[in-house]
Amino acid sequence: MPKRCDSSLAFLCMLGLAACSGAAVTSGGGNNAPPPGSPPPTVSFGAAPTSVVSGDSSLLSWSSSDASSCSASGAWSGIRATSGSQTINSIMTPSTYTLTCTGTGGSTTRSATVNVTGGGGAEVSGGVDSSLLDRHNESANQVYAFAGFNTTSGIPVAQAGVTQNTGGCTFRYDLAGLPDGNYTVALTSNGGTSFSRSANVTVAGAAAVQDFAPARVLRVGPGKQFAHPNDVTGLANGDVVEIDAGVYNNAETIWPSTISNLTLRGVGGRAHMVAPAVISNDKGIWVTDSANMKVENIEFSGATATFSNGAGIRAEGRDLAICGSYFHDNENGILGGSGNGNVLIEYSEFGHNGNCNDPAGCAHNMYMGNTDRFTLRYSYSHHASSGHTVKSRAKENYILYNRIMDEADGSSSYTIDLPNGGLSYIIGNLLQQGPNTENSTIVAYGAEGLSNPSKTLYVVNNTFVNDRTQGGTFLQISGGATAAVTVQNNLFVGIGSPVSGGTTTQVSNLQTNAPNFVNIGAFEYRPTATTPGIDQGTAPGLGGAFDLTPIYQYVHPMNREARPTHNAIDIGAYEYIP
Ligand SMILES: [Ca+2]
Ligand SMILES: [Ca+2]
């Protein structure tokens, strides 16, 4: 779930004690007397979260208008850009961060305080199996500690969000600073409405570990309960199916609609599902009819079907989360049905899927149907064959911090195709079309008619590269003035038209033929000191309820890191640090 809401605020919201805007909290104030005719700067400044476990970090974010410079004081110091963000690590004591921005109209001061829990007692921490979590509403996954054994009523004495380990499909929590005593430690995936697991934990001066394990694990592999994923029977709601790493030939399964909340997980590496020469369901290697499935560490290859649209996964059930998986050499990598709900794909790779063999329509590296929300993040999609590298008809699209490319010899059509519009966020991506692309456009919005309810698109802080020597179009908007499009802080490299069609708001974008990246030939688009656009971006602000400011940047392969801050935000998908 892309929405940001710090855990303590979410808890207050749950109790009805605070408005849950997800916005940062500001406090303090005080404006110096301005000279006549000039307004004092307007400054927005906040921390997220505003309460951390001792030793954890918080992100400070700010923006201003009518200011020429800002300075930090209190628990931090130094000169700051007039907008930006900075992660403060290892916060051990309650800390107040102050920012003063100055312009011709005077100065404005804002402060944000980060409170610290823990430090005085012992920590209770542990792993949380992904099968127990809501992957589509991450802030709802929380662990509470209640005083006494066997109770989950009343006000908890401590609370922590469940966090995902970077680069992986595993999760954990840390409840810090619990005084000695007996506690019930309880896991919720719906913000505290109910608890799916609880355990009695005694704290006696030392750290305690309490893991939350799945209800039941079925094991697949040589010598295991089932030799092959095709053989799995007797499934129950909430089961985890752990499949040993290795190659499984002739793989094809319809995961049934009568079972929900299944987690299918490769262990010890990826479990590779190789399609049979003829898939009997004529759709895909795995057809996910089950609601709320999770697929982790699985590889899919070789899917074909009668109409040249055989998929690694044919997604038909409501809500699907894919993590750490690899889809290659299928007709479609994933083909999303028209089922409603949310599809999340993260830390995954798609390559060499796609074709235009069927006159009725092409197959694509990934092709999402008209679902409610599609999120693609920290992933690598490349070398689509004739089809599109990413295609989605979803009503909402969050395409964040990915590498999506033809590279040297891919033959894709569009790099991103959102043919029906939708509320769409394309932020922090590396987007390239190669010399062999079969369509001169990189990103297309509304190409088949803006039939989704929202026709709003935000394209922010991406690095676009056109390697098509005859030129091309970086962003093509169809549908005329009905689309509301914001294009900000993008770096357009190569010849061609940056934005074509539509009525667009374009702010601080830059086009260059000399990007001076670390190694453009090897598709390493990190900036150097002479890359154009350093410190030349502008604060993106909010796009609807979503903060457009990039907080991560892509790390190859299929990973992410926090986007640092240095002076004003840079144009493009990376921030340059001297
Ligand atoms: Ca293209
Ligand atoms: Ca900068």
Mean pLDDT: 91
Oligomer, anyone?
single chain
Give helix % range: under 10%
The poorly predicted ranges are: 1-35
Morphology call: flat
Largest sheet: 21 strands, parallel
Q: If you had to describe this structure to a student in words, what would you say it looks like?
A:
This protein is an all-beta fold. The relative contact order is 0.07. Among the domains are: 7-117, Immunoglobulins (Immunoglobulin-like), CATH 2.60.40.10; 122-209, Sandwich (Immunoglobulin-like); 372-562, no CATH class. Residues 1-35 have low confidence and may be disordered. Helices cover 2% and strands 44% of the residues. The strands form 9 sheets. The protein has a 21-stranded parallel beta sheet that branches. A 6-stranded parallel beta sheet has the order 30-33-36-39-42-45, with no helix packed on it. The chain binds calcium ion (2 copies). One calcium ion binds at residues 412-415, 433, 437, 439, 441-442.
Task: Based on the model shown, name its key terms.
578 residues, mainly beta, Immunoglobulin-like, 51 strands, disordered N terminus, binds calcium ion
